[in-house]
Amino acid sequence: MRCSEVKSGRSPKGRAQRYFLLGFVAGILLVLLTYLVSQQFSISSQYGDLQFLLVAESAVVITRARRITDKQKVNNAPDEETSEHSSRFDQSLRPLFQMTRVANRNECFLLVFILFSGRATEKSKVVCNTEGSFSESCEADGDVRVHGTSLSVSIVPTRSRSSERREWRIRAHARKSVDNIKKVTVTQLPDPSAAAPPCTVTYTAVPAILFAIGGHSGRNYWHDFADVLVPLFVASRRYDGEVVFLVSNIVQPKWLDKYKAFLHRLSRYELVDLDSDAHHVRCFPHVTVGIRIDKEFTIVPELSPGGDGRRLLTMADFTGFLRETYALPRHAAINLAREQPGKRPRLLLIHRGHYRRLVNEQEIARAAEAAGFDAVVTELRGDTPVGEQALLVNSFDALLGVHGAGLTNAAFLPPGGVVIQVVPYGKMEFIARAEFSEPAADMGLKYLDYSVSVEESTLLEMLGAEHPVIKDPDSVHRSGWGMIDEYYLRKQDVRINVTRFAPTLALAFEHLRRRQQ
Ligand SMILES: *[C@@H]1O[C@H](CO)[C@@H](O)[C@H](O)[C@H]1NC(C)=O
């Protein structure tokens, strides 16, 4: 102590001010730390107490610092203006002063702040969002109890403070429009003594995500990704595996098996089949009810709850996660400037077996070769193991196919690659782009599409030039989804005019030729 006094050689007043500053900074840091800790563990009521303790401790540090400066104050006469303000302030807050025996207004401010933070730390609440155009969901904090077979989630207040009883009916599937999915009842109980089911399993520090599968997922690859994998990634990535999946509506157990590798990297815990979980009430410090689609087959970073380290999530994070999960070797498309001369980018032409076929596949493949690609025609079947298919697609730089679920495989392409969507005849651009255009761009891919003219559609031969499906696609769209689906999506094959298509292939090649790493 003496040493530092000699060294600094400053007055006691200056020292006290420095001490105060130091104390104040330390206090602020503590409060900040408290806040961060509470954010990290806001999930548990027991952490709520820890948080309160930390806040209280910060208060002590700041108050002590304050006392030291008060001793100095005697030497400094306060100027007129401040003293007038103080007295008015003192009068209005005198009752609080006396009640709490704090010495001055600064400490009073502090106390108000502490009481306020203490209040904010008490977390037993539920926030539901049912306004989204695709999904509805709730975030429940505190003492959250889940009973599987009745699909009920109860939020029990943690302290004696009672609140209003509220109830929501939530479809936990990412697409609330899907029917035949039982809704979850989310209930905020009014007080701790209200009849809450007793816990049979308590997870003290692990949150849960409750969601439904089925619906369109399981029918095709695109819906698997758009309706479950992407929304689940968004909801759970922030936990880095420390989260329990509570799954309802498991109509196809094989589906979960198919995506096992993916699911296991998002959650280290065995998933719970809620529909057969009759005998347990599982209690968590935090439960997300329902997973969300904010935009088709992509992620809106600003609306995501964050990734690891609370960074905003992007669709590029999703495809990066896929590459890690399936050990895909290529994280960037070909860079021709760095390759040996003669090396060509690889293009995968998706073969479709049933409808929306490319009638002249081989001719298109030759056109792609003429544009500078190595072209391969392959069928991408939905029943191939995901990892196997992912590896295959990852070895290409460009993916070409008629609008359909096969293009979902773009998620396995290395970033910087190209997706070419062939849009069938019938004013289908809007639908086709909604499913793949922005998703591809968000994955870091170049998106191109090619709209089929009526001459390239087999519908022309089939129906004749005078049929409304040919002459007036608008009338078909006005008539509803049934006709669109029947004609433009199911009865149509495509014979691409390779002369007309050549500029699109040239654009794709140009993109790969020009890209820099
Ligand atoms: C193919 O497209 C080219 C360029 O648009 C056009 O000139 C040609 O007539 C088309 N061929 C057929 C068979 O429609």
TrEMBL record:
Name this polypeptide is given: Glycosyltransferase 61 catalytic domain-containing protein
UniProt-listed Pfam families: Glyco_transf_61
Pathway linked to the protein: Glycan metabolism
Glycosyltransferase 61 catalytic domain location: 221-420
Membrane-spanning intervals of the chain: 20-37
Location (main, coarse): Golgi
Organism: Eleusine coracana subsp. coracana
Membrane-protein topology: Single-pass type II membrane protein
